[in-house]
Amino acid sequence: xxxTASPTIVGPTDGESVTLQTIGARFMVPGADxxxxxxxxxxxxxxxxxxxxxxxxxxxxxxxYVIDGRMGALLGDDVVEAGFERFFAELAPLTAAAAPDxxxxxxxxxxxxxxxxxxTVPELCARFGxxxxxxx
Length: 136
Fold this sequence. Notes:
- The protein is α+β, with helices and mostly antiparallel strands.
- The chain has a domain at 83-129.
- It contains three helices and five strands; from the N terminus they run βββββααα.
- The protein has helices at residues 85-94, 102-111, 121-128; strands at 16-20, 23-29, 40-42, 71-75, 78-82.
- β1 (16-20) and β2 (23-29) form a beta hairpin.
- α1 (85-94) packs antiparallel against α2.
- It is extended and about 50 Å long.
- The protein starts with 15 loop residues before the first strand and ends in an 8-residue tail after the last helix.
């Protein structure tokens, strides 16, 4: 008979914390809880702080969830900036009445370096049985 795992509840102060000069590290869900398949670490840091020197993860994937402010990263020669949520904030007024003006939408996508292919929407709706405003 399969066992049921207990839920993991992490409060705002739970988990061991350490300070690493310019950033903190709070071990919210340690890898040991998942046979080292994943972990969740919070890195509180002050504004304009450098988290780490240039580095590459060779064994892990790293995901960043920015709660407040912005985070930038250098990937090769490209500078990327987290805080993509502003795209949605700027898109909202463009879509208030209907589909956005293609020129305004194109400018917004360019500002966020987003390669958007709106022409694929009807096909995706038909193929997967989903809906999208303006597509019948």
